Here is the input.
Amino acid sequence: MKLRTSSILTLLLFVFLGYTGLNTESHRAGETKLGDQQGIEILQNLLPKSVAFAADVFNGSGAFQEDRAQTIPGEQQYALVTGEKAGMESGAGNIRSVAELKHAVEMVYTKEAAQELFYSRYLEGEDVGLPLYKDYEGMLYVNAQNGGHGWSTEFLYDTVKVKSQKDLTVTLTIDTLVLDEPYGRMIVTIENVNGEWRMTSGFDDYEFIH
Here is the structure.
């Protein structure tokens, strides 16, 4: 009888713990349920930083101050990074290594999105001009001969709408202008990572284009 009672108590304990875990996760998801206004505030914080990485940091050279007199031996195209340019909106700060660069990116994007959008394309590739950034003797260098492209998209934050939410992942939409003309409604996906919102998408997904 004692053995049977002990088994029943153990089973009840497991059921209780399982219920508590599920309830806690549901509570966490409920706490992060977003409205449109919260979506606006989150994207006002994330989108300028994400554009800085996509359009500046990983779109050729020019995002940082460079000393072109200091290069990697045998690779004269790589100039020493000496600081962040004034006006940069990435929040990256005084980056001096590839590891520090990745850390800055992952304050805006999830690690998985950063890998897909940036690392695999610009830090791990072996095409002409890549990798864009390299470490050499404990310092960061950028390929100063890698040209970039312009950025002409403007976000209309007052149009932000929450499209859907599943657990800690939220999909929003925002209307955009290109060269001051209506362009389309972009879809942005964000994820709550340890209490902080991170981008999981780039700038290519549109609900519709005019």
Summary: Residues 9-17, 19-30 have pLDDT under 50 and may be disordered. The chain has four helices and nine strands.
